[in-house]
Amino acid sequence: MAAALSLAERGVGRTGQNPSVGCIIVKDERVIGRGWTQPGGRPHAEAMALAQAGEAARGSKIYVTLEPCAHISQRGPACAQLLAEAEPARVVIALQDPDPRTAGSGIMLLKAAGIAVTTDVMVSEARKSLAGFISRMNRGRPFVTLKIASSLDGQIAMADGSSRWITGDVARAHSHVERARADAILVGAGTVRMDTPQLNVRIAGLDAYQPRKIMLGSADAPKGWEVIRTPQDIANLDCNTLLVEGGAATSAAFLRDGLVDRLVLYRAPILLGAGKACLNDIGLTQLQDAHGRWQLSDARSLGRDRFEDYEKAN
């Protein structure tokens, strides 16, 4: 299952509204099929793995990170039906599908076909891998990561607005990997006017991983950009993951509305003093309310800079 979860990571940010799933087929202790959700959402991981395995899938064990879909789609066959027809001995599933169109019916279909089914394997890891899809199913909006690159004293630019570059090459490359894992990137209208950001992925080998560009505000956006008026409008974006790279006003707006699920900080070992702060008012009125909201999940050095990854506390 760990290997299947690794395969699923290949599709993150490229599968549209579909979940990024991984699938591995094993027979006689040998991998005979591997698959992950392809760009745009099709083929699904199971279909890809079954195509590799062919007739050898009969009597195999199949590991999949999300319950195989069971609902009818014009884009392709239901994976639960494909698996049932392949006649494996066992299907091991990490997580039940939160999509109400499947939600347990894929498991029931497999069991009705006489296939042994094991569920709830590496659940926490699968939830993290599928966080965007789960958020869209359960909360009606994408999973939101807020990125802030600042000095040690929390400044994102000099007083005159100059900000290139606060962090070094290694940290910036890492931030481009974060971009590659997002379906869409959002900045505020002010950032668009002042910086004309490209918001693209500029790492060799990841050229195909280019997220949609979203502007928050009421002004007209440049060609190729989409516009939303308020942070709550992210519910209309029809995607799983959103990376917010806005300035102080945009970042504060998402925090104030409780829409940030993950916070990534890139901090350079510099002090700017009278610069531009990373955040505006986020609505706190008492210091005690600031505590207990975030928990550190990862921290490391990136060249001369420091990276910290925080998850929203439950």
From TrEMBL:
MF terms (GO), sorted A to Z: 5-amino-6-(5-phosphoribosylamino)uracil reductase activity; diaminohydroxyphosphoribosylaminopyrimidine deaminase activity; metal ion binding
Binding site for Zn(2+): H44, C69, C79
Pathway linked to the protein: Cofactor biosynthesis; riboflavin biosynthesis; 5-amino-6-(D-ribitylamino)uracil from GTP: step 2/4; Cofactor biosynthesis; riboflavin biosynthesis; 5-amino-6-(D-ribitylamino)uracil from GTP: step 3/4
Catalytic site positions: E46
A Pfam family that the UniProt record links to this protein: dCMP_cyt_deam_1
Residues reported in the UniProt entry to bind NADP(+): A149, W165, T191, D195, L199, S218, G247, A248, A249, T250, S251, A252, A253
CMP/dCMP-type deaminase domain mapped to chain residues: 1-109
Source taxon at top rank: Bacteria
EC number: 1.1.1.193, 3.5.4.26
Cofactor(s) this protein requires: Zn(2+)
UniProt-annotated binding residues for substrate: S163, R179, R202, E245
GO BP: riboflavin biosynthetic process
Homology family: In the N-terminal section; belongs to the cytidine and deoxycytidylate deaminase family.
PANTHER family in UniProt: 2,5-DIAMINO-6-RIBOSYLAMINO-4(3H)-PYRIMIDINONE 5'-PHOSPHATE REDUCTASE, DIHYDROFOLATE REDUCTASE FAMILY PROTEIN (AFU_ORTHOLOGUE AFUA_8G06820)
Functional description taken from the UniProt entry: Converts 2,5-diamino-6-(ribosylamino)-4(3h)-pyrimidinone 5'-phosphate into 5-amino-6-(ribosylamino)-2,4(1h,3h)-pyrimidinedione 5'-phosphate.
NCBIfam families: eubact_ribD
Protein name per its UniProtKB record: Riboflavin biosynthesis protein RibD
Organism whose genome encodes this protein: Sphingorhabdus wooponensis
Gene name tied to this protein: ribD
